[in-house]
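Q: What does the predicted 3D structure of Cellulose biosynthesis protein BcsQ look like?
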Amino acid sequence: MHTVAVLSLKGGVGKTTVALGLASAALRRGARTLVADLDPQGNATATLNPPMTTASLTAVLDTPRDAVIADALAPSSWSPELDVLVSSEDLELLNEPGPDSRRLDNLARALEQLRARPQGERPYEVAILDCPPSLGRLTRSALLAADTALLVTEPTMYAVSGAERAFEAIEAVRQGPNPRLQSAGVLVNRMRPRSYEHHYRVEELRETFGRSVMPTAIPDRLAIQQAQGACLPIHEWKSPGAHEIGLTFNMVLAKILRSSRAGRHRLPGAADDPSAQPDSA
Ligand SMILES: Nc1ncnc2c1ncn2[C@@H]1O[C@H](COP(=O)(O)OP(=O)(O)OP(=O)(O)O)[C@@H](O)[C@H]1O
Ligand SMILES: [Mg+2]
């Protein structure tokens, strides 16, 4: 099971959209997939539209036992091959350090149990963690549990500073409690190819982070909002815009899975490393 945390410092830049796009691409590849919705807003849960559960990730993060996990896990309405560990509003309580200081690594424990759980079931091949809009405890617990961290940004003037702080957070976790964590780099979302401003901001990102900026950006397309509103995977939404976005997410997922197999640690500055291999996606 390959686990990808989708994060950003800023809200509303497209984390959930990217998490759902990657889940849709994983289904298209025939991969059994899990989405863990770590955002108390529950947007990913709403779009994946699972049946009611008797528990949520809040309980799992408190007690990562099989029975609790089973109560918080539900099949999505997208496909029987895609399950959701559902969010609830009270997840917010876990985002701040509290007197009962819950263990940050309980998400990793829960995912470990799911990994070891087949008993006749097809195991998950891809797990996608949709993080809330901060680098708080919930996002840190995702970084502790992940193999790959994917930063999402919009091409705006705040993108560089936001990505810098997020890279620092990833690096701190990689050098500390989760040495297997790799950075997949920065994925630019809501790109308008005809906007001079957007190209300028992407150039700025590339000057700062080199090849850690993914060569593929997600364009700004109404189809994304339409598919989300209809609770459908982008690959099932029939429009030219949706088709283009679907192909883009296929490429992003392929790149993440490929670089994880190659075992590379692509962090800012990788562009200066002459031994680094060229990107192809
Ligand atoms: N590439 C895109 N084209 C068009 N609309 C988009 C695109 N990406 C995101 N959106 C829309 O922008 C809004 C915010 O996106 P999304 O919810 O994915 O951001 P987020 O980073 O998860 O937000 P939050 O920080 O609140 O969790 C949504 O309405 C979504 O449909
Ligand atoms: Mg979100």
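A (community wiki): The structure tokens above were generated from the sequence. DSSP finds ten helices and eight strands in the chain. The domain at 2-92+104-124+134-262 is CATH 3.40.50.300 (Rossmann fold).
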